[in-house]
Design goal:
By secondary structure, the protein is an alpha/beta fold. 33% of the residues lie in helices and 10% in strands. Among the domains are: 216 residues, Rossmann fold (3-Layer(aba) Sandwich); 213 residues, Rossmann fold (3-Layer(aba) Sandwich), CATH 3.40.50; 78 residues, no CATH class. This is ATP-dependent RNA helicase.
């Protein structure tokens, strides 16, 4: 029979036959590891020979340029050796200067541009020969007090245009000027002058009837934050020292309502309040009489609208307007003719946004627009529109640093170290960070771990404040021989009010070089003297917030610097929104070369030998490895022998005890999660520059000292201060109350766990999560209190 079939010839080769091994059951990580192990044992020498010996480098960064001599030799390329510090410890850290995205900006072109002459200060007081407070309509007594006690001899431009208008006219006003120009005194001085006129004649002689604290409430000033309320109160109290019969007081959240009611009952002429607490007093405090109120001032109006106070402001304006305006007070003092004949509303803001216009529609009636420039005021009066856009003070020097995500932390340390390299050059620095968790982490990371030195025998040790024990501490890494002591401060909205007030007061009065790590809670209205440098480590959530942040320096004609950290790529386009003249764009290399020119002072038990390398790149790698190893250090007591194993009770499964982790590592993971969530809250118009889908989570994790990004980024709001306990199968909080067995998402996919098993961040607060979702829904187009605390 003929063979007409197909002949198949199989080439088996000399290699032994291998069988496909498939693993089932267990965790997927274990299956992948087992599969890789089998594949490795089955590999043949031919496979190893065909495999490429070296991965192609993707860039030509500074690491490649500085270590090129180590990688090549006369005989050809040699194997890449790990840095010497990695060889000492046995751990190898991933390269900081490899696989980084390329910057879009041409830095060489930036260097070739000739520096312009420093601009004249735009918010400085006017010359004393040209203008003075006496010529603006203030009494001689008040003007002399400003010049002699407060050392204010000449007004600023906004004060010059505002004070006469509010003294002579009774119309509403929209007050707009750049940060640091003196808006607070611009509306306070006319109010004090007109109230003082009830007791003092124009020639300075006293009248028959003197107004005192029980004569009535004449002005209410609203501010968005407690810190700003306190600051306005301090400024007003300094002004009223020459008028001791007039009294001001504050009502704000975080204080005792009982003590506030007692102060209101005793009497006050000017009340400074936050919107929420004032609303509560108007509803429940009967002794609060607004019948004599002539002025309502809304300071930082755009910020109040962003924080969700619109309904409170509507209620406050309605309550004040519905009461009849009294022409005489309870003592029979005639108020007509001296005080305004109608209720005057003054709205203050450094920026013009849609929410400010909406607030103006709620509170203003036929208002006049007052700016620092007469030309702008005349133009607005002719056109009937407000088109002024205010930017930073002209004398403020702005810089943008393009820094890859992996190098952010070491670049920040290098920048701070070079800032304090010369003694007295910079006294106070403010670092703005996006969220409270990140503030806590960076404060703990940069704070020294060394015990305080023993006090001298002849010098009594200062008594530390109990409120600042956890928010103030000496810094490590950034000190130098010229500046051996630098104090670290932290401030955010999640701290108790007494702690916030004490921390801000300590930072304001500090005589030592100081660094304040804070959120946007410190960006509005705060006037801290001698702030020379502002660092935006995380970009603001809107350009208007950026203007307020950098406005903490270069105030009242002083010089100042501001630096903004940006990632390479799309974030570099953000500089086009920062106004004119555009900020100078620099590469991180210049900062690292300057800041890491010498060894870094590491906190004990580490020594500076780790950073005593030949080049700034090796110092940067050693510093990054130090941070990573510090987070991986086991807490004290973890090396103790394990406790004896007990038999599990009947009916209950035994659970292996989780090994302890360093609290700094747990804080770093939580800070990373909160930072990524906050990154997604940029306003819609600016998300083209801050696209979270382009964010490299692995690279960003290294900026928090983490070897890999943790999970649970979408886990929601959690109580981070307490670990849960389990009673009868129910997770309970710190007070013992039981919650649901499944929370609102313990992992990235919202996996229904009552706590995060990776680091034990706490029980998910469902009510807080629901409130936060509602708040984000209303405030998605602007930064909110979620970003602050």
């Amino acid at each position: 029979m003929a063979d007409d079939g197909m002949l198949l010839n199989f080439e088996l080769g000399d290699a032994p036959l291998t069988t496909q091994v498939k693993f089932k059951g267990g965790r997927w990580r274990d299956r992948v590891k087992a599969q890789a192990s089998v594949k490795k044992t089955q590999s043949t020498p031919q496979d190893d020979a065909n495999r490429s010996t070296k991965r192609q480098r993707t860039d030509d960064g500074p690491y490649d340029r500085h270590h090129k001599a180590q990688r090549t030799s006369a005989n050809g390329p040699s194997e890449h050796r790990p840095p010497s510090h990695a060889m000492k410890t046995g751990l190898i850290s991933s390269g900081l200067f490899t696989s980084n995205p390329t910057a879009v900006t041409d830095f060489e072109e930036q260097k070739q541009e000739q520096p312009e002459e420093p601009a004249a200060p735009s918010n400085a007081p006017l010359t004393e020969e040209a203008e003075n407070f006496l010529a603006l309509g203030l009494s001689r007594r008040l003007a002399h007090h400003l010049a002699s006690k407060l050392e204010m001899k000449a007004p600023t431009a906004i004060q010059k245009n505002t004070i006469p208008q509010l003294i002579k006219e009774d119309s509403d006003a929209f007050l707009q000027a750049e940060t640091g120009s003196g808006k607070t005194l611009a509306y306070l001085l006319p109010i004090v002058q007109r109230i003082m006129s009830l007791s003092v004649n124009d020639d300075g002689t006293p009248k028959d009837v003197k107004v005192h604290r029980n004569s009535g409430l004449f002005a209410i000033i609203l501010a968005p934050t407690r810190e700003l309320c306190k600051q306005i109160s301090v400024v007003l109290e300094k002004v009223l020292r020459c008028l001791p019969w007039l009294v001001c007081t504050t009502v704000m959240g975080g204080e005792s309502k009982k003590s506030e009611k007692a102060r209101i009952r005793k009497g006050a002429n000017i009340l400074i309040a936050t919107p929420g607490r004032l609303t509560d007093h108007l509803d429940h405090t009967e002794v609060l009489d607004v019948g004599t109120v002539r002025w309502l001032v809304l300071d930082e109006g755009d910020r109040m609208m962003e924080m969700g106070f619109e309904q409170d402001i509507r209620m406050i304006v309605g309550k004040i307007r519905q009461d009849e305006l009294l022409k005489k007070n309870a003592e029979g003092v005639l108020l007509e003719g001296v005080l305004p004949s109608r209720r005057v509303t003054v709205l203050c803001s450094a920026t013009m946004k849609m929410n400010v216009q909406k607030l103006g529609e709620i509170s203003l009636e036929d208002a006049i627009h007052i700016t620092a420039s007469k030309a702008d005021m005349e133009k607005d009066a002719e056109t009937g529109a407000v088109e002024s856009h205010f930017s930073a003070p002209s004398q403020l020097k702005q810089t943008c640093l393009v820094v890859p995500a992996k190098l952010r932390l070491v670049t920040l340390v290098a920048l701070l170290k070079s800032t304090f390299a010369r003694r007295g050059a910079v006294m106070k620095v403010i670092i703005f960070i996006s969220c409270a968790d990140s503030v806590d982490f960076h404060f703990d990371l940069l704070k020294t771990t060394a015990p305080p030195p023993p006090p001298l025998a002849d010098v009594p040790a200062p008594k530390p404040s109990p409120h600042t024990a956890s928010t103030v501490g000496p810094a490590a890494y950034i000190t130098s021989l010229a500046t051996p002591t630098v104090l670290l401060y932290k401030l955010h909205g999640s701290l108790p009010q007494p702690v916030r007030s004490a921390t801000l007061q300590s930072y304001t009065t500090s005589k030592e070089p100081a660094v304040l790590i804070t959120t946007d809670i410190s960006s509005r209205g705060l006037d801290v003297p001698a702030v020379d440098f502002v660092i935006e480590y995380d970009p603001a959530f809107a350009v208007s917030d950026h203007v307020h942040r950098i406005g903490r320096t270069a105030r009242a004609g002083r010089a100042g610097k501001a630096t903004l950290f940006l990632l390479p790529g799309s974030e570099e386009g953000y500089t086009s929104l920062l106004g004119t003249p555009p900020p100078t764009i620099q590469s991180y290399e210049t900062v690292l070369q300057k800041g890491l020119a010498g060894p870094v002072n590491l906190p004990p038990p580490s020594t500076s030998e780790e950073t005593e390398k030949q080049t700034w790149t090796s110092r940067a790698e050693a510093l990054q490895l130090h941070f990573e190893q510090r987070l991986l250090t086991k807490p004290d007591g973890d090396n103790a022998p394990p406790p004896p194993k007990h038999k599990a009770k009947a009916g209950k499964a035994s659970r292996a005890e989780k090994p302890k982790e360093d609290p700094l590592l747990v804080a770093g993971r939580q800070a990373f999660r909160s930072h990524i969530r906050a990154y997604a809250t940029h306003i819609g118009e600016e998300r083209v520059y801050f696209d979270i889908t382009k964010l490299h989570l692995g690279h960003m994790a290294k900026s928090f000292g983490l070897r890999e990004p943790p999970g649970g980024i979408g886990g929601g709001v959690s109580r981070r201060t307490h670990r849960p306990t389990v009673k009868n199968g129910m997770a309970t909080g710190p007070g013992g109350s039981s919650g649901a067995k499944s929370g609102g998402g313990g992992g990235g996919g919202g996996g229904g766990k009552s706590w995060d098993k990776e680091d034990g961040v706490g029980v998910v607060d469902e009510d807080a999560s629901r409130r936060m979702r509602e708040k984000l829904k209303n405030l998605m187009n602007a930064s909110s209190e979620f970003n602050l605390g």
